[in-house]
TrEMBL record:
PROSITE patterns registered for this protein in UniProt: NUDIX, NUDIX_BOX
Job description of the protein: Catalyzes the asymmetric hydrolysis of diadenosine 5',5'''-P1,P4-tetraphosphate (Ap4A) to yield AMP and ATP. Exhibits decapping activity towards FAD-capped RNAs and dpCoA-capped RNAs in vitro.
Enzyme class: hydrolase
Similarity-based family: Belongs to the Nudix hydrolase family.
Gene (UniProt): Nudt2
Biological process annotations from GO: AMP biosynthetic process; ATP biosynthetic process
Gene Ontology molecular function: any one: bis(5'-nucleosyl)-tetraphosphatase (asymmetrical) activity
Entry EC number(s): 3.6.1.17
Superkingdom of origin: Eukaryota
Record-given protein name: Bis(5'-nucleosyl)-tetraphosphatase [asymmetrical]
Entry-linked InterPro entries: NUDIX_hydrolase-like_dom_sf, NUDIX_hydrolase_CS, NUDIX_hydrolase_dom, Nudix_hydrolase_domain, Tetra_PHTase
Cofactor: a divalent metal cation
The entry's keywords: Hydrolase, Nucleotide-binding
Length: 149
């Protein structure tokens, strides 16, 4: 059976960006794992028994980044499912998109992560070494560009 995980791609909008280029002021939150290859990823984790996928995404975000659901705005119309093997077993990861209500909210990492960064799209793609995550970040950015936010 496939391993199932859920998470949130979290972004913030910097107030200093000129309004003509709203998307220039968007930064994405990536966390660096404290295990394995120390890869960079949005907050995510395994679904617990009795939990639905979105509950998992919010719980994992709270555990890994210290962010409460009340500090985020879930963005309607975006949900991404990724499928890839981990240690020879299939894994499904489902991401939703969420915006920080206050771009200055403090991030509080759990022991699962050793660092975090807020990054513009290009830098986020450089740190997110997996192609499907890079493609997802670009897709999110396009989605945000196409919405008149």
């Amino acid at each position: 059976m496939a391993v199932r995980a859920c998470g949130l791609i979290i972004y913030r909008r910097l107030q200093s960006a000129p309004s003509s280029k709203i998307t220039d002021g968007i930064e994405y939150l990536l966390l660096q794992t404290s295990y394995g290859t120390h890869h960079w990823t949005p907050p995510k984790g395994h679904v617990d028994p009795g939990e639905d996928d979105l509950q998992t995404a919010f719980r994992e975000t709270q555990e890994e980044a210290g962010l409460q659901a009340s500090q985020l705005t879930l963005i309607e119309g975006y949900k991404k499912e990724l499928h890839y093997p981990v240690h020879g077993k299939p894994k499904t990861v489902i991401y939703w998109l969420a915006e920080m209500k206050d771009c200055n909210t403090e991030i509080k990492l759990s022991e699962e992560h050793q660092a975090f960064q807020w990054l513009k799209l290009e830098d986020a793609c450089k740190l997110a070494e997996y192609e499907d995550m890079q493609a997802t970040l670009k897709e999110v950015h396009q989605f945000l560009c196409s919405k008149k936010i």
